[in-house]
Amino acid sequence: SAVDAEATNAAIEKKGEGKISQLHKKVENLARHEQKTRTLQVKRGILDKAFTKAKDDIMNLPDQQKKDILVNMITHIDSSKGVIHPTQGEEKIIESALKDSKKSFTIGKSVPGKGGFLFVAPTSEIDFRFDVIIERELLKKMESEVSQLLFAA
């Protein structure tokens, strides 16, 4: 009958509207998620640039300032034996810092890195390379604080 057909059409139409509404919500959710992902990628890029700049700034310190940092690092090594492996290009300043520290470590082969050195003792190894310290220590400790400062709200 016509009434049954009309009721069936209304039910189909209502069901279709519900599906369209669901699809519309899914599209909105996907768009919101995509926007959040892009925002996080941009923020991550800004943080990476900030830490890269920090590494570059350390490498560009005046030699005397860099040497003072190196002497301090070497002086605080709690070992009587070991080999200091300078980063490539930093051999002379590290040799000078070692001399000023009055420690009797030997100088070994150069290692890749941005400043600093790798200390290898008979039973341990300590990484004093500036880029590694920034990555390992500062980045992990400061990342959330820096993020909050830069991206609050």
What is the helical fraction, as a range of percent? 55-70%
List the strand order in the largest sheet. Answer: 2-1-3-4
Between the first and last Cα atoms, what is the distance in angstroms?
61 Å
Q: Uncertain runs with pLDDT below 50, 5 residues or more?
A: none
From the helix content, strand content and strand pairing, which structural class follows?
alpha+beta
Count of separate DSSP helical elements: 4
The H-and-E topology, N to C, reads as HHEHEEEH
Task: Work out the radius of gyration.
Answer: 30 Å
Beta strands, count = 4
Major sheet details: 4 strands, mixed
Strand content: 5-15%
Which overall shape is indicated by the principal axes computed on the Cα atoms?
A: rod-shaped
Secondary-structure topology with pairs:
Elements: H1 2-59, H2 63-75, E1 83-86, H3 91-101, E2 106-107, E3 117-120, E4 125-127, H4 130-151
Parallel strand pairs: 1-2
Antiparallel strand pairs: 1-3, 3-4
